[in-house]
Amino acid sequence: MAANAENRRTETGIPRVAMVQGAIPEHMLAAVYDPMINLILQGSKCMTVGDRTLHYDPATYFVMSIELPAVGVVNPAATGEPYLAISLTLDPTVLTTLLNDLPPPSGRCEQEAGFSVAAVTPALMDAWVRMLRLMGDPVAIAALAPAYEREILYHVLQGPHGWMLREIAAPDTAMARVSRAIQWIRRDFAEPIRVESLAERAAMSVSAFHRHFKAVTNLSPLQYQKRVRLLQARTLMVASASSVTSAAFEVGYESATQFSRDYARVFGLPPARDTARILATTRG
């Protein structure tokens, strides 16, 4: 099953299902992640969003219901097997269709964070196993994968993260409005943003918008934009050989000095040294 998985996102041939295996360089785990369900089969992982770090392993699964800038660290199993994980990218259409076939929930959870970890149940694992067996039977993927995807989502909806998927699928919830604001920030990340304008577009008061945004993402709107800018600048310096100053200005900074200060605070090294370290690791 994992024979073709690499130490980067590896498509399985099943729509929205990907695998990753082995030691993954830290810089490849720092990214803006798409909404997903992530299940570890071997090893463990730490995922940090803002100042909150979650740890999970084969006994647990991770759900991220909105796009979030995060950093991660993966570890092999204690017995030596390489890290191995699978993910299902959340499709709003599939989720909405499934919810339309289910009765409304009896109550509403007051939690708001857009990411969390929960224990894997036998039923959820069974659905995942049947989904992954399709990798050995490509002809059956078109017929069976949609049903298995719905089953995986169904079991997550019945668990402690069900409220999270329901919130993101409904158009007028606070989480859905925050999600739309995230789209605006990501689209225009190099431009100055005004929280007042984002709040108005989200049809919320400034105080309510700021409170919900921080609760969902563990970041303020400006912190979110800064993380997106820094991640993009890192990509420019590593993949395109942009200079520190050029990358800083391209992602919207007006001061290279401020950029270097923010960069070191997030990634632990000044941009030039961090870029050199990443390139040396890649070449090695």
Automatic annotation (TrEMBL):
SUPFAM superfamilies (alphabetical): Homeodomain-like
Protein keywords: DNA-binding, Transcription, Transcription regulation
Signal peptide boundaries: none
Pfam families: AraC_N (PF06719), HTH_18 (PF12833)
Statement: the UniProt record of this protein carries the keyword Transcription regulation: yes
Protein name stated in the entry: AraC family transcriptional regulator
Record has Transcription as a keyword: yes
Organism for this UniProt entry: Pseudomonas poae
Superkingdom as given in the UniProt entry: Bacteria
Domain HTH araC/xylS-type: 179-277
Xref: InterPro entries: Homeodomain-like_sf, HTH_AraC, HTH_AraC-typ_CS, Tscrpt_reg_HTH_AraC_N
GO molecular function, one term: DNA-binding transcription factor activity
GO biological process, one term: positive regulation of metabolic process
UniProt xrefs under Gene3D superfamilies: Homeodomain-like
